[in-house]
Amino acid sequence: MFKKETEIINKRINELLSNPEKQKIIIAIDGMTGSGKTTLSKELSQMFDDAPIFHADDFFLLPELRTEERLKEPGGNIHYERMKKEVIDPLINGKINDIIKYKPFNCRIQDFGEEKSLKINKINIVEGSYSLNPYFGKYYDFSVFLKINDKEQIERLTKRAPKMINNFINKWIPLEKKYHEAFNLYEKCDIKFDY
Questions:
Q1: Mean per-residue pLDDT for 1-24?
Q2: Contact status, residue 123 vs residue 48, Cβ threshold 8 Å
Q3: Strand, helix or coil at 32?
Q4: What is the pLDDT of residues 95-114, one digit of tens each?
Q5: Best exposed site among 80, 84, 88, 111 by fewest CB in 10 Å?
Q6: Where is 111: in which H helix or E strand?
Q7: What is the β-pairing status of strands 25-31 and 116-119?
Q8: How far is CA 94 from CA 40, 100, 118, in A?
Q9: pTM, whole model, 2 decimals?
Q10: 122 and 169 in contact (C-beta within 8 Å)?
């Protein structure tokens, strides 16, 4: 599905790996809801020996932390403090084959799900909206942004989750747009794909 995109990203990875001192690569994939971030990440993971994928969606705030003040903050609807502590810092400081463990947020039960255990690989992917929150610092070797036109976005989200489309339109998409615009993410990303 993402043939052109994976070729471009693969080229960038090979450029980085040409440095014999480069032990591991961290890729951040951010962008608009419904643009294909998760699908692209899965395709890249398959290309690179099941590279681990760390999903920003696993770090949505617990209901009791969703205060009005917090949700006014750009990118504030994820628990970025926990994501930095449990994923970003261990990924930066860890070595290949080290294990990163954390409990993902489960939207269905609005609580933590079963613990995930992912092994640091030569290639590592952090994906999802809010993956490039400035709170994390520049932890990645390069960043990717996926942009989609509004009409296609709504069609995809309606197909994916018809019962949730009003939530996306009235809540999640506006929060995401506020985050993208506040931090000028599209312009700052190394690689951009528009659909």
A1: 93
A2: yes
A3: coil
A4: 999 999 999 999 889 999 99
A5: 111
A6: strand 111-112
A7: unpaired
A8: 25, 9, 12
A9: 0.94
A10: no
Helix, strand, coil shares of the chain, percent, nearest 5, are 45, 20, 35
Dist CA 69 CA 33 (whole Å):
23
Which contiguous run of DSSP H or E holds residue 8?
helix 3-17
Which residues are paired to 191 by β-bridges? 144
Query: Measured between alpha carbons, how far is 179 from 73 in angstroms, rounded to an integer?
Result: 8
Task: Tell me how far apart the alpha carbons of residues 172 and 89 are, in angstroms, rounded to a whole number.
Answer: 27
Cα 145 from Cα 14, distance rounded (Å) = 19
- Joined together, the tokens standing for residue 68 give 């009005």
Contact 186, 145 (CB under 8 A): yes
CA distance 124 to 16: 13
Average pLDDT over residues 77-87: 97
Residues in the chain: 195
Which two three-digit tokens encode residue 67? 């205060």
* Residue 181: other Cβ atoms inside 10 A: 11
Number of Cβ atoms within 10 Å of the Cβ of 183: 16
List, as one string, the DSSP characters of 59-104.
GBPPGGG--HHHHHSTTTTB-HHHHIIIIIHHHHH--TT-EEEEPP
List the structure tokens of 52: 């681990």
Q: What's the pLDDT tens digit per position in 118-154?
A: 999 999 999 999 999 999 999 999 999 999 999 998 9
Please enumerate in sequence order all residues whose Cβ is within 8 A of that of 184, keeping only pairs 6 or more positions apart, or say none.
none
